[in-house]
Amino acid sequence: MLKRRHILSAVLVAAIVGVWQVVASLPGVDHLTLASPAETWRALTNDAGLLFSNAGTTLVEVALGLAIAVALGAAAAVGMHLFRPLRDAAYPLLIGSQAIPVVVVAPLFVLAFDYGIGPKLAIVALICFFPVTVNLIDGLRSVEPELLKLMRSLGASRVATLWKVELPAALPYLFSGLRIASTVSVIGAVFGEWAGADRGLGRLVLLGINQLQTPRVYAGVVILMGMALLLFIAVSLAQRLAAPWSLEEAQA
Amino acid sequence: MATRLEAPAEEPLSSIREKIAVRGVVRRYPARSRRAEPVTALDALDLALAEREVLAVVGPSGCGKSTLLELIAGLQDPDAGSVAAGGQTAARERRRACAYMPQRDLLLPWRDALANAALALECEGVPRAEARRRAVPLFERFGLARFERARPSELSGGMRQRVAFLRTLLAGRPVLLLDEPFGALDAITRTQMQEWLGSALADEPRTVVVVTHDVQEALLLGDRVAVLSPRPGRVVMELEVGFPRPRHRRELVGDPAFAALEARALEALGC
Q1: What integer best gives the mean pLDDT of chain A?
Q2: What is the pLDDT of residues A92-102, one digit of tens each?
Q3: What is the least distance, in Å, from the CA of B205 to any CA of chain A?
Q4: How close is the nearest chain A Cα to the Cα of B237, in Å?
Q5: Is A153 close to B95, i.e. CB distance below 8 A?
Q6: Is pLDDT at A179 greater than 90 in this prediction?
Q7: Which residues of A touch B97 (CB under 8 A)?
Q8: Are A117 and A131 in contact (CB under 8 A)?
Q9: pLDDT per residue over B181-227, tens digit each?
Q10: Nearest-5° Cα angle at B185, B183 to B186
Q11: Which residues in B15-27 are b (16+ Cβ under 10 Å) and which e?
């Protein structure tokens, strides 16, 4: 099902690639800083095995990190929603967590958790925790006071109201948070790998820069973009399955 | 089709004649800001309902009609005076005696119609599947058969209001409190829904307070009509509506006695 917007997207991408190719072929352009689309494509196909096996490592880091962020974020959001003092106390901390410069803490995490997958998961989860938690808290609070009144008159317990009304109402908000998280999570994984790793697309790109393999660096970046796009689409599909009503309303 | 609902028949306090008693009730809301005055919504309001009586409360907007319903429902407490439902004055006990239907249907978009009605049972601790099963016969009886699996967004305004009413019935309480149940509907649907509610109440008798700003609706539904004054709300007139229920608009609009009642109510409202 090819829609108009897909075609428009493809045309735009083609135009950008075209301009990129023209700029890269201009005389005086250093091929060590700008690889042309053709060179990038060659790197993509020649090094496909290497690139995609490393991309697999990065994708696992991203997916697990996101899962951790959702689990911790859901627990934090529900806790802060149910206990007002906790929200008042922890909200500034939550905002502060978003300001932690990942570039600086990434090497510290590697020191603390060693070389393996641990520090990457910690960094991805740290970056994704904020959009997930803040959106969930907003979602839990989005329920109209009238509806809460109705639940109270029906004799619903606090847990029943949370489970039957507030959490389903917060679901579309969770997906909004996840859409943001899905794109930044890829950046988080790359930072984690730059700080110290023996596998992964981030490490491969870093090596590529050091070894002046510019086309391979560009190929890695293209794959990272594709990965973010894939995650974004996966989140949208999950929303269609888990909360179809929220999409109907958007259309109406 | 003899599926009766549970609660109303087995009443521990059935000896009490006054199912609802509101005496000298005052309700004030604190000022919203420093410069604003506190608002007195209700002032020295008295009302009493016998079991299975339908009282229609009519008044100008902002006269505290919704406040009155929330007070009876146990969602608020009065600042002075007393409110009793089923002989109980504690808010918690009033909540147990009353089923409250808010102005808007407030159906949950992620539940189908049947599950929305069954929500009332689930809140009482009935498991989900069992709650659905028990709601099915009501859908058949009240003109919603085949709409069980429809999402709220697929239902018309009148249908949504029916589902909301069934949710209220399924709460299984002896007292129903209906807050402008058809306020958001167009005139034709509204007339149809008034007839529907009238026959539904004939089928499932309850003690009912229905709030409205429509005099004809009040006269069509109520055994009695209480007219409230503008804020602060108090009862300025009570009218006995002698016609047997359920009533039909087309039979009554031409009746001089009905017209006289309407004229008296309108006069009390200052129209």
Answers
A1: 90
A2: 988 888 888 88
A3: 19
A4: 29
A5: yes
A6: yes
A7: none
A8: no
A9: 998 889 898 999 999 999 999 888 999 999 998 999 999 999 999 99
A10: 125
A11: eeebbbbbbebbb
Q: Mean pLDDT over residues B105-125, rounded? A: 94
Inform me whether the C-beta atom of residue A30 falls under 8 Å from chain B C-beta atoms.
no
Radius of gyration of chain A (CA): 22
User: What is the interface pTM, i.e. ipTM, of the complex?
Assistant: 0.86
Helix axes A37-46, A214-242, angle to 10 degrees: 80
* Alpha helix (H) residue ranges in chain A: 4-25, 37-46, 48-82, 84-98, 102-113, 118-140, 145-153, 158-161, 167-195, 201-210, 214-242, 244-251
Distance in angstroms (rounded) separating the CA atoms of residues B85 and A225: 64
Helices marked H in chain B: 65-72, 91-97, 113-123, 128-141, 157-170, 187-203, 215-221, 249-252, 256-268
- What distances in angstroms separate CA B155 from CA A5, A243, B193, one per listed residue? 31, 19, 14
* Contacts with A173 from chain B: Cβ below 8 Å: none
Q: Does A150 contact B at CB distance below 8 Å? A: yes
CA A206 to chain centre: 21
pLDDT score recorded for residue B6: 56
Cα B23 vs. chain centroid, distance in angstroms?
19
User: Cβ contact (<8 Å) for B108 and A146?
Assistant: no
* Total length of chain B: 271
Which pairs count as long-range contacts for A202-210, CB under 8 Å and 24+ apart, including other chains?
A202/A58, A203/A54, A204/A50, A204/A51, A204/A54
- Please report which confidence band the pLDDT of residue A113 belongs to, taking 50, 70 and 90 as the band edges: confident
SS (H, E, C) A120-149: HHHHHHHHHHHHHHHHHHHHHCCCCHHHHH
